[in-house]
Each structure stands twice: as C-alpha cells, then as structure tokens.
Specification:
heterodimer; A: 120 residues; Trna Endonuclease, Chain: A, domain 1; B: 509 residues; alpha/beta; Ribosomal Protein S5, domain 2; Rossmann fold; elongated
C-alpha cells in the first residue's frame, strides 16, 4: 500500500469514528462500482448520507475541500443513486444527502477535521 | 459573521454610481464567484484576489464565497473593484472591523503580489463617492494625488492589500512593499506658445482675440505656411484660466481617458485630432466601455481641426449636436454615457487641394471642380455654426521684419479677453448666458438690448438680399457685440457691424 493510500485509509477511519460519535450508523465503506467509489455511507433515522472523505498531509497543494469540485459532486450524486438502487431497503424512508469531510494534517488521528453537510 | 459589505464605484462615462459589494460565506465546498453583471476583466478579479490575499499573508476562507455587486443591474467594468471584493471577502471570516469596512469606499486593482495598482477614472469615482456622502476612500497610492483633488473626503493611499486590511484592524505584518509607481505625468503637449511670435498677421490676431473674447467658433482659410496652426495653438493661452469646477471636469475626463492626473491644470485644453479620425475617435465610444473622445477632452477648451476639408463629412457632421447642446451622449448596448462637450471650435483649411488658390504670385493647379468640391465638404449646417471666417495670406519677408514691433503678447491679449468677457458677463447678468457666442438669436434681435435700425442697416440689407441667413444674421450680431466689448463700448456701432459682417464673409468660396 502506498503512503497516500495509508493516509487515506486512516482518514476514512477517523471520519467514520467521528460520524459514529454524531449518532450515525455506518452502512457501507469503500463501495466500488465501475463509475467510481463511495468512501462512506452512513445513516440516522430519516437521513441517508453519502460521505466523501478527503485527507491531506497539509494544504500546500490546496485545501482538501477544493478537490471536491462541481464535477466530483456530480459524480458523487450519480454514485449515490447507484448505491440507493443497489440497496433499496436501506434507502427506504430516508432523505438522501451528500456530505464532505476534510482531514488536514500528517497524522489522521490528530489532524483538523472539517465536516460540510449537504453539498449543493 | 458570514456576510460583509463595502463600497466601490462603477463608472458610466463621467457618471459614477456607488456599488455595494457584499460578500457571503456559505458552508459549502470552496468556490469563489462574482455576480452582478461583471465584465471579463472584473470576472478575473477572482484570480487576482485569490493570489493577492495569499501573497499578503491574508487567508481567504476555504468555503464558498459569493460576491454580489449591487445594484446588480448596473453593468460594471474593469479591475477597479478588486480591492473592494478582496476586503469584503476577507471580512466574512471576521477579524476585521466590519463597521469601518462598511463605511469605506475601496477603489483599486490588485497585482498578484498584493500591491494596489493605479486605475483610470479615480477622479470621477471619488467625486461620485463624495457627492453620495461617503467620507472615507481608499485608493492605490499611485492615485492618491489625483483623488486628493476632491475636497471634503478623507483619501487614504494604500500600498498593498495588507495595508488596507490593517487599516480595518486585521492582524497582518507589514510587508514593506515598494508602492507601484504612478505612470509618469504626460508632458504638457502644447507648451504655452507666445502670441507675439505671430508676425505680420495683425488682422488674424485680432480675429483670434475676438474669438477668444466671445467664445466664437472660427474657420481659418489660407495657403500652407500662413500660420493657421500657429494661431490655433496660441488660443488656449489667451483664454481665461479654468475655474475650479471646469478644471476638475477637465481632469476627470483626462483621468477617464487613462492619462495620469496629479494636479489641476488651469490652462484650457487643446485637442487637435488628425484628419483621419473616425467618428468614434472624435465623439467617443468603445464596444462596452464608453471612452471619451476628442471633443470630450476638448471640453472647456479648444477643438482644433486642421485640414478640415480632409475629414470625412460624416465625422464633421457628428460635431453638430455637441456644438448645439454642449454635451455629447453616446449610446452603447445597455448603457448611455454623457460627456460634457462645450468646446470652442477652430477649423483650418487650405483654399484648395494644392493650397495656392487665390494666393498672389502662386499658381493654383487645381481644376475648378476640385476647388468647389474641396470647400463643399464643409457642410452648410456646420459652417452656419461658425461665427468668424478668417482669410489668411502668407506674410512677405519684408513685411515680417517691418511689423515686428506691432505684435501683441499673450499676456496683453489675455487681459483684453478677460476684460471683454467681464463686460459681456456684466451685461448678460440677468440672463442664463455668460458669453456672446451663447446668447440666443431672438434675444439679440428683440431683447432689451436690440440694436437701433440705423446700426443694423448693413445686415438688414444683406438679409433682404438673401446673402445672409437669419442664423448668419444672429452670428454677425454676436460677433459685433464681442467687438464692442473688446473696444469698451456700451453697444456696437455701424463700424462693429461692418467688421463682424466682414469676418462672417471673409472666406471666399
């Protein structure tokens, strides 16, 4: 595993822990189809959230959230609907939403975490 | 805090409209957009603000920034909004004095290094802000002298964006940047020329003084080398110095045209466009931004058209409306800009294409049709607005040295002009006019100062013969009044009328 993948994995773990602390249940992780990959799918009563996790060692190459541009958002929405189609029972009665979690710092466990809800 | 607001100025011609720049920070992925009818240069402010902030050690918030320029329907051009956009954006994150930002007008372009670069049109922008009651304006340091010409506002020249932010209470270190220098002031293009240099053209000099005293438009016709350009370039020197309001207006137009303005120039401007000038060059224009043309730059001064017969007829006819109304309105898609255009028109022409027609001892080689066509290019309606038509001849060498002691200096001429203008202004004190050339025809003919029939006889006769139009009649009366003002008489005599008639008909066509 390359160093960047280790960091990304650690970031996703941190994001999952953080979301659990907010009362979400993690339904799926690294769900992958041909079009791409969803990092996390979490849920609370009435809410179904597709989460993009972006981890960077620092912001020397731009803030992690800057990588979640409108093209990426479109792709995430497409993936989100694909996930819903594949898991109709989990999606039933829940409002779908797109979130982004940015983790900036060399060590994912102590790095700064920023959570943006409801990307649009 | 998630919103912040400040002020900038959008210019349409000389008219400045205050624009509220409001920035909103919303919790979305980073994005930076500007709405409210920005043009291309203004849209690119995003990049400049981004890099200037980073290089000044100021961090733009990493969320979605939306900057609205309100009123959103007014078209906005250029880069002068950069500083206002940057400050409003930075203020959304807090850390600055919002009240101080909200009451300050920011004008200036940002360099990528964060320094403030000078922009054209600072003077009219500051004038607009002052008129709207704004008391504090931050401009690029290179524009500080220009902005300070407006009284009643606190003008602050800033070197960099960090400089501006610190004034609003931000905690950034002083980078000690070199200020962007102001462009070097344009040399005075027409150095004060001395009227005494004009030798042996006594009649022409008198006609020039008459034109200056009454504000009359003038046509000079003469062979090459007769001194037409020389005379015209001496007119600004004998005109009265501009007052504060006029000098400020002249400077504002200069500023808008992109010329550096550091001090008020009291000397009336002289504009001499080349005869290949297009209508847009003369009246002003541009595709979306409306720039002042030669006639706007000549406002409160002199517009000199040399070789007027070579100008395109359509270009000359474009002068008719501003000559009549003293203003020029230019319409472009979505905007109409108005510029002042109260200039004194001086036309110069050769008598024929080769220049020798009617000159003693010279051979004109032009066929008669060419001569007729040459002067025929001056349309009747334009010539009808010219009060003084002056025929010039070449000065013989012997004449030149003999008459050298009869010359009149610029200062002496200026004094006579000032005195005659004062007399006219006193006589016209109960009317809206100050210059003889502006007085309306009916008032001259039938107003309280109408001349006695005895005095009027020469022009009444010319009118009856049909050799003078009614408009021409009025013009002769105006010049006659100016001649009597110059001579210190209470009202024109038959002699004045006769000379005025000669000046109107001086050019043989």
């Amino acid at each position: 595993m390359a160093a960047k993948d280790v960091l990304g994995r650690a970031g996703e773990d941190r994001a999952a822990r953080y979301l659990r602390s907010l009362g979400y249940t993690v339904l799926d992780r690294n769900w992958r189809i041909r079009d791409g990959e969803i990092d996390l799918v979490v849920a609370r009563p009435g809410e179904l959230v597709v989460v993009e996790v972006k981890t960077r060692r620092g912001d020397g190459f731009g803030h992690p959230l800057e990588a979640v541009d409108s093209r990426k958002q479109h792709r995430l929405w497409r993936l989100a609907f694909a996930w819903v189609a594949a898991h109709p029972d989990d999606a039933q009665g829940r409002r779908l939403r797109l979130d982004a979690v940015a983790i900036t710092g060399p060590d994912a466990d102590t790095a700064t975490l920023e959570h943006i809800q409801d990307l649009r | 805090m998630t919103t912040a607001r400040t002020w900038a100025v959008a210019l349409t011609g000389l008219e400045g409209a205050l624009v509220e720049v409001e920035a909103d920070l919303s919790n979305q992925t980073p994005e930076f957009r500007i709405i409210g009818l920005p043009d291309k240069a203004l849209g690119e402010a995003v990049q400049r603000v981004h890099n200037a902030s980073a290089n000044c050690g100021l961090a733009l918030p990493r969320r979605r920034l939306t900057v609205n320029l309100s009123p959103a329907s007014v078209p906005k051009h250029g880069s002068a909004f950069d500083v206002a956009i940057a400050i409003a954006s930075l203020a959304t994150a807090g850390g600055m004095d919002a009240a101080s930002i909200a009451e300050t007008v920011h004008i200036g372009e940002l360099g990528l290094d964060g320094r403030l670069r000078p922009v054209p049109g600072v003077l009219p922008a500051v004038m607009a802000a002052a008129r709207e009651g704004h008391r504090r304006i931050i401009v690029p340091s290179a524009n500080e002298a220009e902005a300070s010409l407006v009284s009643g506002v606190e003008v602050i020249g800033a070197i960099s964006l960090a400089d501006v932010a610190r004034r609003h209470g931000a905690d950034v270190e002083d980078l000690q940047l070199e200020p962007v220098p102001a462009p070097p002031a344009a040399e005075i293009r027409h150095s004060p020329a001395e009227l005494a240099d004009v030798i042996g053209q006594r009649d022409a000099v008198e006609a020039l003084i008459t034109a200056a005293a009454g504000g009359h438009h003038m046509l000079m016709s003469g062979p090459p080398g007769a001194g037409k350009t020389m005379l015209a370039s001496r007119l600004p020197g004998i005109l009265p110095a501009l007052d504060d309001a006029a000098a400020l207006e002249v400077a504002a137009i200069r500023s808008l045209a992109g010329d550096p303005v550091a001090a008020l120039v009291r000397r009336p401007p002289l504009e001499a466009p080349h005869h290949s000038a297009s209508i847009a060059a003369l009246v002003g224009g541009g595709s979306r931004i409306v720039r002042p043309g030669a006639i706007a730059r000549a406002s409160h001064g002199v517009l000199f058209l040399d070789e007027v017969g070579e100008f395109a007829p359509s270009v000359l006819d474009a002068l008719r409306q501003p000559l009549e109304t003293g203003a020029i309105t230019i319409h472009r898609s979505g905007v109409a800009a108005s510029f002042p255009a109260s200039f004194q028109l001086i036309l110069a022409t050769n008598p024929c294409p080769c220049g020798n027609y009617g000159v003693r001892g010279a051979n004109c080689v032009c066929p008669p049709m060419a001569i007729r066509r040459y002067l025929g290019r001056l349309s009747g309606p334009l010539l009808d607005r010219v009060d003084i038509e002056l025929g010039l001849s070449r000065v013989a060498v012997a004449h030149a040295s003999l008459l050298a002691d009869e010359t009149i200096t610029t200062d002496a001429a200026a004094a006579r002009v000032a005195e005659a203008r004062a007399r006219a202004a006193h006589r016209l004190r109960d009317t809206a006019w100050r210059l003889n050339a502006r007085v309306s025809g009916p008032w001259l003919r039938e107003g309280p100062l109408a001349l006695a029939p005895v005095v009027r006889r020469p022009i009444d006769a010319a009118l009856q013969r049909g050799s003078l139009t009614l408009r021409g009649y009025d013009r002769v009366l105006r010049v006659a009044w100016t001649l009597s003002d110059l001579a210190g008489r209470a009202s024109p005599t038959v002699h004045d009328i006769g000379r005025a008639l000669f000046m109107k008909k001086g050019v043989t066509t």
